[in-house]
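Data availability (excerpt). The following record was deposited with the supplementary files.
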Amino acid sequence: MSVPSERGAEVGRRIGVGLMYGLWRPRVLGAWRVPASGPAILAVNHSHNIDGPMVMGVSPRPTHFLIKKEAFVGPLGTFLTGIGQLKVDRTSADRTAITDALGVLGNGGVLGIFPEGTRGEGDFASLRAGLAYFAVRSGAPIVPVAVLGSSEKPGRLIEGLPPLRSRVDVVFGDPFEAGDGSGRRTRAALDEATERIQKQLSSHLENARRLTGR
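Predicted structure:
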């Protein structure tokens, strides 16, 4: 197994910082809540294509995101692999992606995941079990992340992107444990963990909206 490059992810973070602050006006709240060391999972709501690059750029630590395999085409695929991002086939249980993600956490790194599985309303209304599996299996804390303002349409100059120089808020929440402390990894335990996670993420999103006025 080839472990995704943390040095590559740091390069990606620096590129992301330049791009995100150059094109938009990110306002980052609570980044200090991301554990300074050790494994962590950033659980990000997903309503727009820039959500991943935005979080990658403003996170205080290099982050390895699970990204749909369809994005890994040609030069972009080579670039994403080079900056330590993980390719995942969303149509099946992708064992390579699972192994790589657990490898990131096993090495004390930061895994980025969109728990809704695909881009949508970005409201954490429907979670897949993957996040609970990674959290329970690794014991890594989950840090909820709300990206707000990325899907605003008025004044958009480039199709598919938020208006240039518009404000995008990224709000990091308090880390929490997904498991119940028993270490169980049964389907029932994962279902219970998913339910706990959904409540925490929805609560964080509600607080973030109140905090930012979004």
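Summary of structural features: The radius of gyration is 16 Å.
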